[in-house]
Amino acid sequence: MVTLAEVARHAGVSASTVSYVLSGKRPISDLTRRRVRASIEQLGYQPHAGARALASSRSRIIALMVPLRTDMYVPVMLEIAVAVATTARARGYDVLLLTGEEGPSALRRVTGSGLAEAVILMDVQLDDGRLPVLRAAAPPAVLVGLPADPAGLNCVDLDFAAAGALCVEHLAGLGHREIAVVGGSPGVYARHTGFAERTLGGLRERAGRLGVGLLHRPCDGSHDAVAGVLARILDERPGVSAFVVQNETAVEPLLALLRRTGRAVPEDVSVVAVCPEAVAAQASVPLTSVAIPAQELGRRAVERLFARLTGPGGPDATGVELLTPVLTVRASSGPPPSRRLTG
Amino acid sequence: MVTLAEVARHAGVSASTVSYVLSGKRPISDLTRRRVRASIEQLGYQPHAGARALASSRSRIIALMVPLRTDMYVPVMLEIAVAVATTARARGYDVLLLTGEEGPSALRRVTGSGLAEAVILMDVQLDDGRLPVLRAAAPPAVLVGLPADPAGLNCVDLDFAAAGALCVEHLAGLGHREIAVVGGSPGVYARHTGFAERTLGGLRERAGRLGVGLLHRPCDGSHDAVAGVLARILDERPGVSAFVVQNETAVEPLLALLRRTGRAVPEDVSVVAVCPEAVAAQASVPLTSVAIPAQELGRRAVERLFARLTGPGGPDATGVELLTPVLTVRASSGPPPSRRLTG
DNA sequence: GGGCAATATCGAAGCGCTTCGACTCGTGGC
DNA sequence: GCCACGAGTCGAAGCGCTTCGATATTGCCC
After folding, report:
1. Which residues on neighbouring strands pair with residue B288, listed in sequence order?
2. What mean pLDDT is predicted for residues B183-191?
3. Which of A125, B64, B104, B343 is buried most, with the most CB atoms less than 10 Å from its CB?
4. Is residue A249 predicted with pLDDT exceeding 50?
5. CA of residue A119 relative to chain centroid, distance
6. Is residue B313, in this structure, part of any structural domain at all?
7. Gap from A10 CA to D15 C1', in Å?
8. Are residues A223 and A286 in the same domain?
């Protein structure tokens, strides 16, 4: 392995000079810089990461904690993770992958050992076990998601409450009076995952305000589960003319079932989803949807982290950033049958 | 931050003693060990990762390179990644997440800088640009996937050729004489991704051997793409009575389309998939399938890495390990209509 | 033309850990 | 009763890098 000292010798300068060429923290003459650069090139020098971290107390690594569970929409998770990795790399940082399995102690471990300078947490619960660790050790951190009490924390998320409201608004505007919500999987609610409850809150609030009926049912993504939930919904509320789907894996089963039971979309029932654009656009009926901007979330999370890492510092970098949801109208929503007849 | 020296002072021993308590590389009396452990506990000591890596030249980190692309089945990728992380953690290692974006140079960077001791590569192409780097720098590495020339490399993968053969065998055994393959997305073939071509090879070989007709069409996962491919297949080969699906996102669209065009599964056509168990079991018709053992792949990859890292060393740890595919019969396959009539 | 800023470079002191050699004790063999 | 030896511990020398003074070397102002 080539060391900085060897580069220095090769270039005929001192070790510190090479270091300054690399970091740019002190002025170096053009000639020297060139010579050093050439030596680095020729010798194929790579600074030793550990030595760097030790001397500078900066590891240039951020930890990303992803959930183990698979009852959330997995592609969204991966997309966020990849966006985090890509954005971090662009800033010269690497990403350490932590699974939820190890729990809060993993946070303590990687920040306490100086392995990671900062952390990004995904799949945040309303009352998340990792939060006490964050508040105690206070490493730079960003949550993708919103806990019940975000005070003093740095959070980024889609404004799911607004997303829910947007869905109801769109459907109510078309004339629907009874809306059913095919929610996330039961486990998501059991864990009090923030986004699910906030969406529901938004849906309810707006439905209440607009005087629209709203029925909510958690639902797994399997075909059978969707069939069961759909049957119950139609049984309890025959007047339902629109669905809001939050569990993306339930989208296709729902469409298939509606089709099979002779309900045309959007002529007989409308469907609006909260899901990634790709899912909405590729569905068997292109879906009117509120996009989950996974990439944007990952990117913003990293950017907030760096704002805190390199920025003015202090607690002023905390706070909640909620991305404004956007509803894109596609083929799956339209006026309810009643309106069509009279329209 | 608490250092080893402080622990030593607190416990009334020398720094090296603390180190040996931690590593167990030299005998330490029970009494001393206890005292040191207590001090570590009380002070909340965490060894500094960088210092450790520097002194021992072992970072206890392995790098995992995941593809950026999204035309492969994403949940499989995430599941492998999570399995890798979990298994590595159980051995005291952390996982660094690299995206394909940076290309081969990322490999050089993380191994050259001592950041990662070893690498695991996913989404291996038949002629992968990262292989030259591996052969040149020769860091401990395991590929999840199989390149065209695996000589000197350490590979783990499902035996996709056998998987393909298994599908054909199962269907031929049921009496099918014309089989259509709904393949992976065109991009997968364009990149010469190993698993796709090997599956196809296995399918063709066995079909040839058994005198069964085989028609292969690459296919994206979108509903429209599947519809197009299905129409063409049925047009070209009206006698097709069975489908093998390799692109998991195409599964539901295919089932929906068959249903809609009045073809019952498995009465009129059989469907066999190569996909994760979860997808097969949760499909609208539970699918006869060859499982893609994502977790097992991740675990085996890490285990091979450690065998090489801590084991006897030398090139004897290279080689290819192909997991034997298992076909599980579910509801989606049965005899072709012709057989049923006469049976 | 003496002094004073930059500018450019060097040497040395760590960063916190691992590891090697050396030292001090018992203990058992003979 | 002496030697050899293993068990248990310590001190010191790095690992490769950053960074903080110093030390030249240059202009440039008045």
Report:
1. B272
2. 89
3. B64
4. yes
5. 14
6. yes
7. 20
8. yes
Helix, strand, coil share of chain A (percent; to 5): 50, 15, 35
* Residue B43 in contact with partner chain A when CB distance is under 8 A: no
Q: A216-229, pLDDT tens digit by residue?
A: 999 988 899 999 99
Chain B residues near residue A115 by CB distance under 8 angstroms: 49-50, 94
Task: Give contacts of B137 with chain A, Cβ < 8 Å.
Answer: none
DSSP, residue by residue, A147-169: -S--TT-EEEEE-HHHHHHHHHH
The reply to whether B47 has its C-beta less than 7 Å from any atom of strand C is yes
Would residue B54 count as lying in a domain? Answer: no
pLDDT, position B15: 96
Domain limits for position B134: 61-158+294-324
What is the SS3 assignment for A216? strand
CB contact under 8 A, B113 and A46: yes
DSSP bridge partners of B63: B96, B119
The DSSP secondary-structure symbol of B324 reads P
Rounded CA-CA distance B198/B146 in Å is: 9
Q: Are A162 and A322 in contact (CB under 8 A)?
A: yes
Calpha distance A6→A14 (Å, rounded): 10
Between CA A218 and CA A189 the distance in angstroms is 8
Which has the closest alpha carbon to A277: A136, A53, A76, A128? A76
Q: Is the peptide bond before A75 cis (omega within 30 degrees of 0)?
A: no
* Residue A52, domain member (yes or no): no
In chain B, residues with a C-beta closer than 8 Å to the C-beta of A82 are 66, 68, 99
As beta bridge partners, residue B289 has: B273, B328
Number of domains chain B is built from: 3
- The CATH code of the domain that includes A334 is 3.40.50.2300
Q: Which residue of B has its CA nearest to A283?
A: B223
* Model pLDDT for residues B87-127, shown as the tens digit of each residue: 999 999 999 999 988 889 999 999 999 999 999 999 888 88
d(CA A225, CA B10) in angstroms, rounded, equals: 59
Q: Which nucleotides of strand D lie within 7 A of protein CB?
A: 7-12, 14-21
- The answer to whether residues A147 and A219 belong to one domain is no
Angle at the Cα of A249 from the Cα atoms of B121 and A148, rounded to 5 degrees: 90
Q: Please name the residue whose C-alpha is nearest to the C1' of nucleotide D12.
A: B16
Burial B110-128 (b: 16+ CB within 10 A, else e): bbbbbbbbbbbbbbbbbeb
Q: Determine the pLDDT at residue B343.
A: 45
Q: Quick: pLDDT tens for A27-83.
A: 999 999 999 999 999 999 999 999 999 999 999 999 999 987 766 778 888 899 999
CB contact under 8 A, A112 and B46: yes
Range with lowest mean pLDDT among A111-115, A134-138, A290-294: A134-138
